[in-house]
Specification:
Blueprint (H helix, E strand, L loop, with lengths): L4 H8 L4 H4 L6 H22 L15 H23 L2 H34 L13 H8 L29 H16 L2 H4 L1 H19 L17 E4 L3 E4 H19 L8 H17 L2 H18 L15 H5 L1
Antiparallel strand pairs: 1-2
């Protein structure tokens, strides 16, 4: 009988997330790996004129960059919801602002006044660099408030596949901030304290809607890798919001949030993690990644964070470099 105990424990999922995910976890390492994956993926079209790694293998469903961004939203959903349940609304919003904006502003200035002049010198466009209608100062003014209002600087990098884009990562910040605002609003009305079921219902409804719209996608593509079929709009400070990206990224954020809210009931099951890995890889190759592979990836990431080997849990505990690397 004793020989069967480990197997039965794995099948039943003996440890809930609230016990498995302690102070020593894999969030730091996972976020660092996801950030490096985004940089590597973006370096292909922006710097080398090549496609996103994984796009061909997945038959156009997704790519390394899209998967990494989706993973960020899962981990962010869990951690941000945890913060939203513990802090006042004002303190929560202040913490989010000082987390996002200073790094963004430093990144913009680095792009405009360090990287862009070097590129202008290499492309022999120094003479028109400062006087160009989309010059470095205009780049700062168009992008300082999170939303991307201008991709290019002084007409440089026009030969790239993503013509003129100096930073391919900043587009996702508007969607991230929109999720932060949703958490702040739900926490302010007390939903996280009194009605976890309502948050779960919202995520289930969003998933059902994503399945519905996925019918129009060949291979059920992941965000950014399918035709634009849904309307978008412009929001103050956040700029253009594309529903084709907001829906799946919002779902991934929501799955992380639900994991936090139901952490005492959500079981960290090794067999379920292996099944999630199989679904993630299998759907990425053969189809259905949009509605099956992405949710499976969410569970897999959370399981990895809860079961990271001890020495690796030290990464990112004192200084989290993932956001700076991502930008």
């Amino acid at each position: 009988m004793s020989r069967n105990l480990p197997v039965r424990a794995a099948l039943l999922g003996a440890r809930p997330l609230s016990e498995a995910l302690g102070r020593e976890n894999g969030f730091g390492l996972l976020r660092l790996l996801l950030a490096l994956s985004v940089i590597f993926a973006h370096s292909m079209p922006l710097g080398m004129g090549k496609g996103d790694p994984g796009a061909t293998w997945s038959r156009g469903q997704t790519g390394l960059g899209a998967v990494a961004v989706a993973g960020f939203f899962v981990l962010s959903g869990l951690l941000i919801t945890r913060s939203g349940t513990r802090l006042s609304t004002g303190r929560f919003l202040w913490n989010r602002a000082i987390r996002v904006l200073p790094g963004l502003w430093v990144c913009l200035m680095l792009m405009a006044f360090v990287i862009a002049p070097i590129v202008a010198w290499r492309e022999h466009m120094v003479g028109t660099f400062w006087s160009h209608p989309q010059g470095p100062w205009e780049y700062i003014k168009a992008n300082w408030s999170v939303g991307v209002g201008q991709w290019t600087i002084s007409g440089l990098l026009s030969h790239n596949l993503q013509a003129g884009a100096f930073n391919g990562s900043t587009w996702s910040l508007a969607y991230e901030v929109l999720c932060y605002l949703a958490v702040a609003a739900l926490a302010a009305v007390g939903l996280f304290r009194r009605a976890h079921w309502a948050a779960l219902g919202m995520v289930v409804a969003l998933y059902c809607y994503m399945v519905y719209i996925a019918i129009d996608y060949s291979y059920l593509r992941a965000p950014g890798h399918g035709p634009t079929t849904l309307p978008g709009w412009r929001l103050p400070f956040l700029g253009s919001i594309n529903m084709d990206m907001l829906v799946p990224l919002g779902l991934m954020f929501g799955l992380g949030a639900i994991a936090e809210l139901y952490k005492s009931r959500l079981r960290m099951n090794a067999i379920a993690a292996l099944l999630s890995l199989g679904l993630f890889v299998g759907t990425a190759r053969y189809g259905g990644f949009y509605v099956i592979g992405l949710p499976a990836f969410a569970y897999l990431l959370i399981w990895l964070a809860a079961h990271m080997p001890g020495p690796l849990t030290k990464i990112g505990t004192r200084v989290d470099l993932s956001y700076g690397i991502y930008l």
